[in-house]
Amino acid sequence: MSISLEKKRMYYIWNDMRRRCEKEKHKFYKNYGGRGIKVCDRWLNFEFFLTDMGYKPQKKSLDRINNDGNYCPENCRWVNRKTQNNNRRMCLMISYKNKNYTLKQIWEKYPKKIGVTYRAFHKRISKNCSLEKALFTPSQSGIKL
């Protein structure tokens, strides 16, 4: 009985998820198991992982919704690269109009309309400029922020 290529890929994803959390010699252990990230008991069984997550959609990867949380059905999803990159520990989160955004997300939502480059926006925020000024003062305004 042969295992499908798709199922084999899923096994590699599952196995690497477990290794990141359990094997101290894994190159990314410090970012997962070393931080206390675990795989839920149910997902110690590959078939249950596969049942809960389904097969990996094309151009998607496994993502933890709360990246400080464990690998479990309630905290995992398949997402594209952009979504995953916006859900990293190193992303600075900003609350604006009662919603949380990463710097990149808020820049994509607002300043492009008035010509503020992402680099200028990031620099302004890192220099403690108010969010309103960083977002809505055009780069070519001549105004010192």
Beta-strand portion reads 5-15%
Distance between the ends: 67 Å
Low-confidence stretches: none
Secondary-structure class = alpha+beta
Percentage of residues assigned to helices: 25-40%
Give the overall form: elongated
Strand order of the largest sheet: 1-2
Walkthrough of the structure:
There is one protein chain. With 145 residues, the protein is of the alpha+beta class. The protein folds into two domains: 5-80, no CATH class; 93-141, no CATH class. 37% of the residues lie in helices and 11% in strands. The chain has six helices and four strands, in the order ααββαββααα. The strands form two sheets. A two-stranded antiparallel sheet has the order 1-2. Strand 3 and strand 4 (99-102) form a beta hairpin.
Provide a brief overview of the structure.
The chain is α+β, with helices and mostly antiparallel strands. It folds into two domains: 5-80, no CATH class; 93-141, no CATH class. Helix content is 37%, strand content 11%.
Which features does this protein show?
4 strands, alpha+beta, two-stranded antiparallel ribbon, 145 residues
List the helices and strands and how they pair.
Blueprint: H1 5-22, H2 46-53, E1 61-64, E2 76-79, H3 81-85, E3 93-96, E4 99-102, H4 103-109, H5 118-126, H6 131-136
Antiparallel strand pairs: 1-2, 3-4
